[in-house]
Design goal:
By secondary structure, the protein is mainly α. The chain has helices at residues 2-23, 25-48, 56-72, 75-95, 101-119, 130-151, 168-188, 195-223, 238-256.
Length: 258
C-alpha cells in the first residue's frame, strides 16, 4: 500500500510539473511560486520544533519580492530584491518584540534555502533547459537508489550520522545515470548545448542534487521530523520532493547562459 501511495503521489506531482512546464513560462512561474509558498511554510513549521519562529508574514512578503524579481530576470533588479528583503527582514524583526535574533537568522536561512534557490527556475529563459532540472534530480535519485540497492557495498561513513544507507556505488550510479538521460534528452530534442557541456553540467548538478538531499535529511534529523509535510501521498511535503531541485536550479541557470 505504501509503495502504491508513493507511486500515485509521485505520478501526480510529475504530471503537474510536466503540464506547467510544457504550457509555458507563465504557468511555470505561477506553479513554482505556489510551491515556494508551501515550502516556506513547511520549513517554518520544521524550525518551530526547535523553538525558532520566523514570521510567516515576513517570509511570504520577501518570497513574493524575490519571485517577481526572478521572473523579470534583470540581474540588477534581482540582486536589489535580495538586498531589499534583507533590510525588510531586519526592520521587521527589530520592531516586533515578539521575535528575537535567532528568529531573524531563521528567516534569513529560509529566504536563502527556499526563495533564493528555487527562484532561479524562473530566471531560465529557454524553457527547454528546465527539463534538465527534473531529469537530473529524479534521474540521479532513481539510479542512486537502484545501483545502491543492487551493488552498493561501500558505505559513506562520513555521512552515516545523516544518511546511514548511502553508498559510494549508489552515488556514482546516480551521477552516471543522470548523465546518460540528459545526453539522450539533449540529442533527441536538439538542446542548444554541446554534449560534453551537458555531461559536465550533469556531473556537477547530480553531486549538488545529492548534497541537497543530505542537507534536507540533516534538517529533518535536527528538528526531529520524518517529513516536512504530507501534501504528496507517500512522499511527504513539497520540500521532501524538491530538496534536490533546489540545489540544482542555480547551476542550471548558469549553464543555460553559456
Amino acid at each position: 500500500m505504501n509503495l502504491r501511495k508513493r507511486a500515485i503521489g509521485g505520478a501526480i506531482i510529475l504530471m503537474i510539473l510536466v503540464a506547467i512546464t510544457y504550457i509555458g513560462r507563465i504557468p511555470l512561474a505561477l506553479g513554482v511560486g505556489l510551491f515556494s509558498y508551501i515550502a516556506l511554510d513547511e520549513m517554518r513549521k520544521a524550525l518551530a520544533k526547535i523553538d525558532l519562529h520566523p514570521p510567516r508574514k515576513l517570509l511570504f512578503i520577501t518570497n513574493t519580492i524575490v519571485m517577481i524579481a526572478a521572473y523579470i530576470n534583470n540581474s540588477d533588479i534581482y540582486i536589489g530584491s535580495l538586498s531589499v528583503c534583507v533590510l525588510i527582514s531586519l526592520i521587521y524583526i527589530i520592531f516586533d518584540n515578539k521575535y528575537n535574533l535567532y528568529d531573524g537568522f531563521a528567516s534569513a536561512f529560509i529566504l536563502l534555502y527556499v526563495s533564493f534557490l528555487i527562484s532561479h527556475i524562473l530566471r531560465i529563459k529557454d524553457i527547454n533547459f528546465v527539463w534538465l532540472l527534473y531529469i537530473t534530480a529524479w534521474g540521479s535519485d532513481t539510479f542512486a537508489y537502484l545501483v545502491g540497492s543492487l551493488v552498493g557495498k561501500h558505505k559513506m561513513d562520513f555521512i552515516s550520522h545523516i544518511s546511514p544507507n548511502k553508498t559510494i556505488e549508489g552515488s556514482i550510479g546516480g551521477i552516471v545515470g543522470a548523465s546518460i538521460l540528459n545526453v539522450i534528452y539533449a540529442i533527441e530534442f536538439n538542446l542548444e548545448a554541446r554534449i560534453f557541456e551537458v555531461v559536465i553540467f550533469t556531473i556537477i548538478a547530480a553531486i549538488f542534487s545529492q548534497i541537497g538531499d543530505l542537507i534536507a535529511s540533516y534538517i529533518k534529523r535536527q528538528t526531529g521530523i520524518k517529513d516536512f509535510g504530507n501534501l504528496i501521498p507517500g512522499h511527504g511535503g513539497i520540500l521532501d520532493r524538491f530538496d534536490s531541485l533546489l540545489f540544482i536550479a542555480p547551476i542550471l541557470y548558469l549553464f543555460s547562459r553559456l
